[in-house]
Write the structure tokens for this entry.
Amino acid sequence: MNKWLKWTLRILLSGVALYLVFRKIRWQQVEHLLAHAQPWWLIPALIGYNLSQIVSAARLFIFYRRIPVPLSRRLNLALYYKGMFYNLLLPGGIGGDGYKVHFLRKKSGQALKKLISATLLDRLNGLAALVLLLVLLSPAIPSKLWSRVMPFPVWWLIPVYGVLLAVAWQAAKKYCPTWFPVLPRTTGLSLGVQVLQLATVLCLMQAIHTSGPVVAYLWLFLLSGIAAVIPFTIGGAGAREIVFMAGASLLGASAAQAVAVSLLFFLLSVLSAWAGAYLSLDDRSL
């Protein structure tokens, strides 16, 4: 598919998703919350988000060095932010991960399959940690509210996740021997990424003075993170907001406040991604 067509479709899907969201809630409420956000809470939120990206880059660095790619930490971080920039703001279907793989293959001469495998494992590792925190937070949601969201008891999540994790662990041991030894370390970093992003959300909640159960916002944020992984929209814009909007009323939270938090998080990601436009990838270590 033509790259401009892909970019146009992503813009349209993001627009449609946001349109559906704002048909269900009053934009004036969200606009008021954003306009009156406490700026002093936005600063630690921005710091927390970027710390999460630095930890995420460190996780990817571990996967790449196992191939091995002679990559310095400085270049890895610059490449990671450059990938964020491509993924969020520039047209084309290559995306941030594709850009990193293309750059490293060109500079290092490593096999494309290995680079793609390392990048994919990094994504799956992060997703596994996200789902784990989602499972651990689920019991904190009152059973009366949980039954509105899911058709099964909350305690089912733990054994189901345990079985899936065991299967994934054995599959990684058998089919990914190159990266299997570092999985405990990278999983710990993945949990650190998600904890830092939850801290970022808590700062954003303070910035707009959210009301309602804190755990509901955090749970919805993690759930929206799964939706944002699917590359159908621009940086998850629209996908996150739909999850927040649909789940907020079910969990006793304010839909307008939930969407405002989601939009602020997206704006933080866009602002941070712009740093990638100005970072140099000129490094003799590769």
